Structures are given as C-alpha cells and as structure tokens.
Amino acid sequence: MITIKQIISQIEQRQPVLNKAELTTDQLTLSVNGVGSLTDANSTQLSFLADPNYITSLAQSQAGVVLVTEQYREQVPSPTVVLVVASPYLAYASSSQLFVRHTIESNNIHPTAIIAKSAVIGADVRIGPYCVINEHVHIGDRSCLDANVIVEAYSHIGTDCVLKSQVVIGHDCIIGDYVRLHAGVSIGAEGFGFAPSQDPSIDGWERIAQLGRVVIGSHVRIGSNTCIDRGAIDDTVISDHVIIDNLVQIAHNVRIGAGTAIAANTGIAGSTTIGKRCVIGGAVGINGHIDITDDVTLSGMTMVTKSIKSAGSYSSGTAAMPTAKWRRAAVRFRQLGDS
C-alpha cells in the first residue's frame, strides 16, 4: 500500500503539488494500492485527468485519489482526495513507478551465473541465473541483471541499471547510469559493413571489421529486441535521456542527441546524426550519412532521404484509403513523375 504522502513525494521530484498544504493528516496517510482509469478506479486506487475529453468521467469517478489541474479541481467528487498539479499526465507517470511489482531475490548472485575473476562487481548488484560476465567487465552498484544476460569483455555498466532477460552487451561497450534494457536487446553487435568484390555473386563480399564501440549515456531506456550496432571506426553514441521503443534498428556510427524519443520499427542507417529532443514515430526510415537537427518530429512511416536542417514536423507516405481509390491515386502519382 502506498500513502498519499509517498505519492506527493514521488510527484515532487518533477513538479510541485499545488494544494499540498491544504491536505489533512488523515488524507496524507490514506493508502492506495494501484492505478485505474477514471471510470474503473475504486476507492483504493489513484487516477488522473489529463485529457479534457474525459471530463464527464470525472464527476462519477470512484477513485480514492485523482490528479487534476487547478481548472478541474472543483469537479472532483467527494470524498476523493484531489492532488492539483500543472501536468497530471507527468504526475501519473511519476506515481506509477511506486506500484511496480518487484521480485524478491534470496541471493544477489545466482549460483549458475558465470563471472570472470577479473570482473568488477559493485555493491548490491543482482545477477540472475545463467548470466555470463566476461573478463574485465565492470558493473556498477545496485544494477540488476535478469536471467541469461551476456556481457562481453571490457564492457562497463553503470550504477542502478536494469538489464532484462536475454540482453547481450558486446565487448568494450559503455552503458551509463540508470539505464533500462528490455528483453532481447542487442548492444554492440557487428555492424552491417562489407566491401563488394569485383563480382559478389562469385567472390562474395569482404567483411569490414567493426572496430568502434557503443556508448550509451545515462537515464536511457531501450525496448525489447532493439539492436544498436557498434561503430565501424568511431563509436555509435546514444546520449542521455534517450528513449527507444521495441524492434528498432540503429546502425553503426549513428549518433542520437539527448532527450530524443524513437518509436517501434524505426530503422536508422549508418553514420547518421540525430539531434536533441527529436520525436521519431513508428516505422520511420532514415537514410545513412545525413544530419537531422534538434527538435524535429517525424510522423509515422516517414522516409527521410536528405538532411533536415530546420526544426519542425515532417511527414511522408500515403494515408490509408479504399484500395480502388489508392490505385487511381497511384496512377496519377506515377504520371506526375513522367511529366
């Protein structure tokens, strides 16, 4: 059970609770055990109003605690406790972390884990079953590795990191502090680098050894089955506060600026630089050897083939329409190319 006092403390790591001084001792010690929507939450749950379109649900809500802006505080029914904040959605995000179910481990290091003698393991590190920690690896304090994680030689993992099952960290990679890598993430695999022979159908392709690293900053989140390839010569770099969804491919020597968000199924080709605070929608394709400036938004399925030098929103692709209409539009589009 989480008290309202604890919820306020968590929220105020990001923003103030504007009516905190008005709450009674009884209200501050009231406990809740989960989060629910305005329509479904009960008296032992927390809810929030982030979208005015749901204002009609607020008056009938049975939630024990509701996060709202000042504008809507008078519409919260009694006896629900109101917490007034500037951004209810951000407050909900902060509060949600208090309700995560944690697995209790009896031993910090599972007996089946294989750890090289030269590895340096910090204080209160948890290493799960069948993990393999190779030579000269460094793992910072309080980091947690779930089952079957592999960390190759000379890699460095910072403090308070979470690596879920089946994560693989290639050799010589650097992971900052407070990084979360979800199941199946590959960091530092060999990039897709090959030189063609005179006739690849006969003599094949000549592999280019990938000699760089992957360097990941702090407070980075990377989703399941995302692959970030090591650099060919220089490093692949993911800066602080970057969040990356599932099934994203980031090729060798890509550099991503701080605070950028990348949605699922995006592919970024090699040696591209993406600026700070960019928002990249799902299934976006980005060509190699181009630069995208700060504060760019790319809507879903956008194809970027040239550098973007001005901040703003960019889109491409064709929205869904009835097949017969799409075929006629495609014919006209093709004719435009011939004119």
What is the element layout, followed by pairings?
Elements: E1 2-3, H1 4-11, H2 25-29, E2 31-32, E3 34-35, E4 45-48, H3 55-58, E5 65-68, E6 81-84, H4 88-96, E7 114-115, E8 120-121, E9 126-127, E10 132-133, E11 138-139, E12 144-145, E13 150-151, E14 156-157, E15 162-163, E16 168-169, E17 174-175, E18 180-181, E19 186-189, E20 194-196, H5 200-203, E21 205-207, E22 214-216, E23 221-222, E24 227-229, E25 236-238, E26 243-244, E27 249-250, E28 255-256, E29 261-262, E30 267-268, E31 273-274, E32 279-280, E33 285-286, E34 291-292, E35 296-298, E36 303-304, E37 312-314, H6 323-338
Parallel strand pairs: 3-4, 4-5, 5-6, 7-10, 8-11, 9-12, 10-13, 11-14, 12-15, 13-16, 14-17, 15-18, 16-19, 17-22, 18-23, 19-24, 22-25, 23-26, 24-27, 25-28, 26-29, 27-30, 28-31, 29-32, 30-33, 31-34, 32-35, 33-36, 35-37
Antiparallel strand pairs: 1-2, 20-21
Helix pairs in contact: 1-4
